[in-house]
Design brief:
- This protein has no helices and 23 strands.
- The chain has 343 residues and is an all-beta fold.
- It starts with 7 loop residues before the first strand and ends in an 85-residue tail after the last strand.
């Protein structure tokens, strides 16, 4: 059974006054400075990694790696930069439809982005993209870390200055302010996603059973878990979202069913977002790009049909020993939860 991916997009809104008001458009090439330790690059048409050279300009499409106790700084233009920390593996890219969009495709490691407040003037844009999240910046300072533990991908986003807005395929979060922290955890197939508010307070928006926005407040320790799977024989997609408080108390559970090739729509999605449903050559760790699922208003969801209730199911978001799984609205067996591990 094919399970669709759970994509997230993190958009950072303009808020903080950082640095100067000087206009500095992105340059056609990026430069690397402050090269420390073992840092290597591979050009778009290169066959192997070679040592990074201090103050040298490289074309977009270049891959960058840093070793232990190693780091470098990438310069997009005067005052706009990205610090690449130790043990990082990333590729510098740019948008397909918008060449002014620069993309840091972060496979592993941690980066810190610092941009002028007005860097976006004249259409400049920058994203930090991981296997499950995109952080898009408009004049701010933030960190993104991506790592793999066992078979789980963990993404951590920290806002240092500014205000960010985050959206994924099945949720949105607005107005994350300075010192707010988020963690995102997902298995390789992204059939399950856990978003935890590590620090701060903000609202999370999910879709209700009618496809309308439902806003729920979160605080430090709040957890949003999202499961999705296809219903055998129909290609319908069932999404179950469960929100729990810091004490583990269930706050909200919502189940939505989508017909084939349908998905919810949240603000901030762009034409250069990766295809989270299929394979994507440009997405970290993925293959070739598949057809993009249409976005826009959704009809009233219907219960899934032809689901086999005899199929074993378990809660991959269930804490060990908690004995709790998301309730099924109406008490029926028409809302499947994925078979899989517990996280």
């Amino acid at each position: 059974m094919k399970i669709r991916g759970l994509g997230l997009v993190i958009l950072v809104l303009v808020v903080a006054a950082i640095g100067t008001n000087a206009l500095a458009n992105f340059e056609p090439l990026f430069r690397v400075i402050k090269v420390t330790g073992e840092c290597t690059v591979k050009l778009p048409d290169g066959d192997a990694f070679v040592p990074a050279e201090e103050s040298k300009a490289y074309p977009y499409g270049t891959a960058v790696r840093t070793g232990m106790r190693s780091s470098l700084v990438i310069i997009f233009s005067e005052g706009n930069l990205c610090r690449v920390l130790a043990n990082a593996n990333l590729t510098m890219s740019e948008g397909i439809s918008n060449k002014k969009l620069k993309i840091i495709r972060l496979n592993e490691g941690e980066v810190e982005v610092e941009l002028l407040e007005d860097f976006h003037t004249d259409g400049n844009a920058l994203n930090v993209e991981t296997a499950t999240a995109i952080c898009g910046a408009i004049g701010c300072k933030f960190r993104v870390a991506s790592k793999t533990e066992a078979d789980l991908r963990i993404i951590i986003v920290r806002v240092i200055e500014g205000l960010i807005r985050i959206h994924g395929e099945n949720f949105a979060a607005t107005e994350l302010a300075k010192d707010d922290w988020l963690s995102l955890l997902s298995p390789p197939d992204r059939s399950f996603l856990r978003l935890k508010t590590m620090k701060g307070e903000f609202d999370i928006t999910i879709k209700d059973e009618d496809g309308n926005d439902r806003n729920v407040p979160t605080e430090e320790g709040t957890v949003l878990k999202i499961w999705q799977r296809e219903v055998p024989g129909t290609d319908q997609r069932v999404v179950v979202a469960e929100l729990t408080g810091p004490d583990g108390r269930l706050i909200e559970t919502v189940t939505v069913t989508y017909d084939p090739d349908e998905s919810p729509s949240f603000p901030g999605q762009g034409p250069d977002d990766p295809d989270w449903d299929g394979d994507d050559a440009d997405k970290p760790g993925q293959g070739q790009r598949g057809p993009r699922r249409p976005r826009g208003p959704r009809p009233r969801p219907r219960p899934p049909q032809h689901y086999d209730p005899s199929e074993p199911d378990s809660d991959p978001g269930q804490e060990q020993g908690s004995g709790r799984r998301p309730p099924r609205p109406g008490g029926g067996d028409t809302t499947p939860t994925p078979v899989g591990k517990r996280y």
